[in-house]
Design a protein that fits this description.
By secondary structure, this protein is an all-alpha fold. The protein has one domain (about 25-95). The protein is about 80% helix and about 0% strand. It has four helices and no strands. The protein is elongated, with a radius of gyration of 19 Å.
Length: about 100
C-alpha cells in the first residue's frame, strides 16, 4: 500500500476551515438541513454516486464533524495505539531474529 503524503500544516488548516464552517452551520441550520445539503454536495462532487450512498456518507461526515467539534476525535488515540503496536511488533521481530 502506498502512503499518501499530506503535510501536517495542510491537514490542520483544511480541517480547521471545515470545522469552522460546520460550527457556523450548526448555529444557523437544523441537523436535517445540514445533512441534506451535505448529501447534495456529495452528489455534485461524485456524480455517479447512488442517492443512498450519498446520504450515508453525509450522515457519517456529519457525525464525524460533530464528534470533532465536541472534542471526541479519534485520530490521536488511534495513532498512539498504532505506534505502540508497531513498536511491539518490531520488538517481537527483534527477539525472534536474535
Amino acid at each position: 500500500m502506498t502512503k499518501k503524503t499530506i503535510s501536517a500544516g495542510n491537514a490542520v488548516w483544511n480541517s480547521g476551515k471545515d470545522g469552522y464552517h460546520f460550527s457556523k452551520m450548526q448555529k444557523e441550520h437544523c441537523d436535517r438541513e445540514i445533512i441534506c445539503a451535505m448529501e447534495q454536495d456529495i452528489k455534485q462532487q461524485y456524480p455517479g454516486i447512488r442517492t443512498s450512498d450519498a446520504f450515508r456518507k453525509a450522515v457519517n461526515e456529519f457525525e464525524y464533524l460533530t464528534d470533532q467539534s465536541e472534542g471526541h476525535g479519534r485520530c490521536q488515540r488511534v495513532r498512539k495505539r498504532l505506534n505502540n503496536e508497531t513498536q511491539s511488533a518490531d520488538s517481537i521481530v527483534g527477539i525472534l531474529t536474535t
